[in-house]
């Protein structure tokens, strides 16, 4: 702290270093790490900016921060204990050294454009495959998501792309959308009021994609969380990624299982071993495993062998249980990637 700051009580700027990328910047008092990084033109991962999506998850290597809203709404106990913070909610209280994966300049920039609902088909009693049309082709990495805005455009909901990306992008992205009773957007979709309504789509967003590696892959999905995993696995199969994989899917009963054809196509194109383990939590059926999907993490990892990376998408409690099971089994947090499908009830 400078002598002037000490004398007049003005808090000093804090120096921030991102160890992995070598970026340096100063953060003035009252400014979050994310705000300052973006102002410096750094491709810091982010989306919601209000502490609910987890995109800006960052490991604090050294230094102190103050949280505007508690990180624990979004981060798991294991992440908090390992020093993870949310950059959009963190005010530096000392100089900081951070570890975060900064985006590459080759990544597609998010574009917001007008969109229309095109069609929807039933996948299960409460999940639909929905096509939305846009004018400009949208490019994304397998696993990413887009935000759909409606009404006056001030609110949005996030939906993960459900297909492998295609060269040149698509003007008709597909999403798997689950009905959340009482939900603002999905009540509209399932109530049939979306056709004809002007929408906007902005994306791509998110840092959920398949990392490089040679080790096996364990994928865990619940409900509509299968969408980004199908996209990721279809893309990996197209690219002839040669890594053993187990896809675990959790549903309450048999009626929650879907996308069997897409999973069978991935399995037949996969160049290493590929297993699909559906798990039912509320029905006993000799065809399927029963219990919670995350109960089968130890067994799957034993089958896959060491050096696995974990990929998960779905409801927040499933992700938290998955992080717990994967870390208990010895997988480090940097090898665990997920999108938590948070909704308006999460922070509340
Ligand atoms: C990165 C990301 C990717 C996602 N991808 C997908 C996807 O591919 N497919 C998918 O189906 N979903 C996905 N989601 C979830 C999706 O964005 C929506 O949150 C979900 O569809 C619900 O939206 P809604 O407007 O229908 O419900 P909301 O309006 O968000 O309401 C959800 C529930 O919360 C209740 N609620 C509202 N306000 C409060 C409050 N103050 N207190 C308590 N309860 C309240 C509502 O009654 C309702 O039951 C994703 C989310 C994220 C963050
Ligand atoms: S950008 Fe920080 S939690 Fe969403």
From TrEMBL:
<dbReference type="Pfam" id="PF00970">
    <property type="entry name" value="FAD_binding_6"/>
</dbReference>
<dbReference type="Pfam" id="PF00175">
    <property type="entry name" value="NAD_binding_1"/>
</dbReference>
<dbReference type="InterPro" id="IPR017927">
    <property type="entry name" value="FAD-bd_FR_type"/>
</dbReference>
<dbReference type="InterPro" id="IPR006058">
    <property type="entry name" value="2Fe2S_fd_BS"/>
</dbReference>
<dbReference type="Pfam" id="PF00111">
    <property type="entry name" value="Fer2"/>
</dbReference>
<dbReference type="InterPro" id="IPR039261">
    <property type="entry name" value="FNR_nucleotide-bd"/>
</dbReference>
<feature type="domain" description="FAD-binding FR-type">
    <location>
        <begin position="110"/>
        <end position="211"/>
    </location>
</feature>
<dbReference type="InterPro" id="IPR001433">
    <property type="entry name" value="OxRdtase_FAD/NAD-bd"/>
</dbReference>
<dbReference type="InterPro" id="IPR001709">
    <property type="entry name" value="Flavoprot_Pyr_Nucl_cyt_Rdtase"/>
</dbReference>
<dbReference type="InterPro" id="IPR012675">
    <property type="entry name" value="Beta-grasp_dom_sf"/>
</dbReference>
<dbReference type="InterPro" id="IPR008333">
    <property type="entry name" value="Cbr1-like_FAD-bd_dom"/>
</dbReference>
<dbReference type="InterPro" id="IPR001041">
    <property type="entry name" value="2Fe-2S_ferredoxin-type"/>
</dbReference>
<keyword id="KW-0614">Plasmid</keyword>
<dbReference type="InterPro" id="IPR050415">
    <property type="entry name" value="MRET"/>
</dbReference>
<dbReference type="InterPro" id="IPR017938">
    <property type="entry name" value="Riboflavin_synthase-like_b-brl"/>
</dbReference>
<feature type="domain" description="2Fe-2S ferredoxin-type">
    <location>
        <begin position="14"/>
        <end position="104"/>
    </location>
</feature>
<dbReference type="GO" id="GO:0016491">
    <property type="term" value="F:oxidoreductase activity"/>
</dbReference>
<dbReference type="GO" id="GO:0051537">
    <property type="term" value="F:2 iron, 2 sulfur cluster binding"/>
</dbReference>
<dbReference type="InterPro" id="IPR036010">
    <property type="entry name" value="2Fe-2S_ferredoxin-like_sf"/>
</dbReference>
<protein>
    <recommendedName>
        <fullName>Oxidoreductase</fullName>
    </recommendedName>
</protein>
């Amino acid at each position: 702290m400078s002598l002037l700051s000490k004398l007049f009580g003005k808090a000093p700027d804090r120096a921030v270093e991102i160890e992995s990328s070598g970026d340096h910047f100063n953060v003035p008092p009252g400014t979050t790490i994310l705000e300052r990084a973006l102002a410096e033109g750094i491709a810091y991962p982010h989306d919601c900016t209000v502490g609910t999506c987890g995109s800006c998850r960052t490991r604090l290597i050294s230094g102190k921060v103050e949280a505007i809203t508690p990180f624990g709404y979004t981060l798991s106990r294991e992440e908090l204990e390992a020093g993870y913070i949310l950059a959009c909610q963190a005010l530096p209280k000392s100089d900081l050294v951070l570890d975060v994966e900064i985006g590459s300049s080759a990544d597609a920039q998010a574009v917001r454009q007008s969109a229309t609902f095109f069609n929807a088909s039933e996948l299960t009693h409460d999940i639909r495959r929905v096509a939305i049309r846009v004018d400009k082709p949208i490019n994304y990495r397998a696993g990413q998501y887009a935000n759909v805005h409606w009404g006056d455009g001030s609110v949005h909901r996030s939906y993960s792309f459900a297909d492998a990306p295609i060269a040149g992008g698509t003007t008709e992205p597909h999403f798997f959308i689950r009905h959340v009773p009482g939900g603002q957007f999905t009540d509209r979709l399932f109530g049939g009021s979306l056709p004809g309504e002007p929408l906007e789509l902005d994306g791509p967003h998110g840092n959920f994609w398949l990392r490089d590696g040679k080790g096996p892959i364990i994928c865990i999905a619940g409900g509509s969380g299968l969408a980004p995993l199908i996209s990721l696995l279809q893309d990996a199969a197209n690219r002839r990624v040669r890594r053993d994989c187990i896809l675990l899917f959790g549903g309450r009963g048999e009626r929650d299982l879907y996308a069997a054809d897409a999973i069978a196509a991935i399995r037949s194109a996969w160049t290493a071993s590929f297993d699909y383990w559906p798990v039912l939590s509320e029905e006993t059926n000799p065809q399927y495993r029963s219990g919670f999907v995350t109960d089968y993490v130890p067994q799957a990892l034993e089958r896959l062998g060491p050096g696995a990376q974990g990929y998960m998408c779905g409801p927040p409690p499933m992700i938290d249980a998955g992080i717990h099971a994967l870390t208990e089994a010895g997988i480090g947090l940097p090898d665990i990637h997920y999108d938590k499908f948070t909704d308006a009830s999460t922070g509340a």
